[in-house]
Amino acid sequence: MSLSLTVTGLTKRFRGLLAVSDVSFTVPAGKIVALIGPNGAGKTTCFNLIAGVFPPDSGSVTLGGRDVTGFRPDQMCAAGIGRTFQIVKPFAGLSVLENVLVGALHREKRVPAARANALAVLELLGLDPQAHKLAGSLTLPDRKRLEVAKALATQPQLLLLDEVMAGLRPTETDAMVATLRDLNARTGITILLIEHVMRAVMALAEQVIVLDQGRKLAEGTPAQVTNDPRVIETYLGHDIPEGAAP
Ligand SMILES: Nc1ncnc2c1ncn2[C@@H]1O[C@H](COP(=O)(O)OP(=O)(O)OP(=O)(O)O)[C@@H](O)[C@H]1O
């Protein structure tokens, strides 16, 4: 249920702006890795390149050793990549279960089987008691969980999570961290997450990649990167993100 991800020399320009510049890293199969860095560092652009929203100008993306560079989003999904978006947008007028079913039907065309898969995903995320509520009526923490559930419903082997802790209170963040740890332990799924909430990064990630101005600035364990003078200078030191302080 898990695939490694390797990006090599990933580069993307928007007109004159070098949004991602020669970025290389690996997320080993089954591991949880975080992508951090200041606003505009190129984190979401990296996700968009990995998810196939647009192709890189140069560089490659390999999934479990298979070159998927330049695949479209539906092809990336079929290859095993699932993602969430920074802005959560459930179908508010559909139930939680129906929202997840939309994703499940991408993988399984028979409705009863897709429904069973969707329910299993809700159970994994602790959302099963809410299955029949309208998505629009959920609290923010549960909407964030639903976003993860929608991505999981396509049965990915690599999950890209874009700021799923943003806006959560510390206790809600801790609950999401526990859920994601449990998901990783139970399914073995590989997870790459963009996160500003350092409390969550420290608790979840085995490796952290730091981007700044499109380039990879540092890489290491959470303890290594939070003690790296370059990371403190460009990111942690100026405006200490929530939960990063000792
Ligand atoms: N579609 C686009 N067209 C033009 N410029 C873009 C586009 N997407 C991103 N950029 C620019 O690329 C740079 C990197 O943006 P990106 O969203 O990847 O950063 P980020 O690290 O995810 O930031 P944040 O933490 O604020 O989400 C920024 O300067 C941004 O304005």
TrEMBL record:
Q: Can the keyword Nucleotide-binding be found in this entry's annotation?
A: yes
A GO term for molecular function:
L-phenylalanine transmembrane transporter activity
InterPro entries linked: AAA+_ATPase, ABC_AA/LPS_Transport, ABC_transporter-like_ATP-bd, BCA_ABC_TP_C, P-loop_NTPase
Keyword annotations for this protein? ATP-binding, Nucleotide-binding, Transport
Q: Does the keyword ATP-binding apply?
A: yes
Q: Which GO terms describe its biological process?
A: D-alanine transmembrane transport; L-alanine transport; L-isoleucine import across plasma membrane; L-valine import across plasma membrane
For the ABC transporter domain, which residue ranges apply?
5-238
- What is an example of a Pfam family matching this protein? ABC_tran
Annotated Gene Ontology cellular components are: plasma membrane
Q: What protein name does the entry list?
A: ABC transporter ATP-binding protein
Originating organism: Elstera cyanobacteriorum
